[in-house]
Amino acid sequence: MLSVNIGPLALPVSALLLLAAGLVAAGVGHLAGRRHQTGIVNTLSDMLIAGVLVARLGFVAFWFDTYRSAPWSMLDIRDGGFMVWPGVAAALLVALWRGWRQPTLRKPLLLGLAAGALVWGALFGAQRMREQSALPTLSLTTLAGDPVKLAALADGKPMVVNLWASWCPPCRREMPVLAAAQQRETGVNFVFVNQGEDGATAQDFLTEGRLGLANVLLDPAAALGREVGSGALPTTLFYDASGRLVAAHLGELSAASLASKLSPLRASAAASGKD
Question: What are phi and psi of 54, to 5 degrees?
């Protein structure tokens, strides 16, 4: 499962796991610090802010050349561009600083962080075990009306599968980025699976946007989204050359966030002997 629907909102499971771990950490820290009336919620909040900020800055610095043509997009964190380990390091430095300044905070903070890490690890491991890790086998339809399966389009190469719809604003915004990547990345197969619309609607959108896409498929019942566990659009799935799901992105892709996901796929393509 990649997302959970709460009313009209589709929230990434990864965010919900982090929220659960944070709540457990806060609760354990509160219990451990009752004697000295010491809570860790403020420290956890500062750790989160520092972690997110540094993770974003690290990502932007690494992919700066990609952002250079549209500098304002550096501020748009909706593209999911974060570098995890610099963010984790920044959050831990905040924890160490607070613990050094406030001795009574050390024990509740340590216990809270340990409990949160354990909960996150357990939930993340369970989630990974439940994830659909191989290419789905359901039958889709080409714009010409012919049945086809994703495996038939793989050709032994890594594959990027984009779930989209013409009514979805972020789908429309990211489509030129994906179209350009399909033209450029000959070692990776891109497949665009329309969710819940008929062929005429999908074709009108492609014609209007002058998008010369290959491998456009139809999924009128939106079965693929359900099979991979995502109720969000757009959703982009990244499969390596052996057909194993190695990454997923919920929401709009920027050129930089797409490039960060394609980098390991290129290594997969090289290992498989495809160019």
Answer: -70, -35
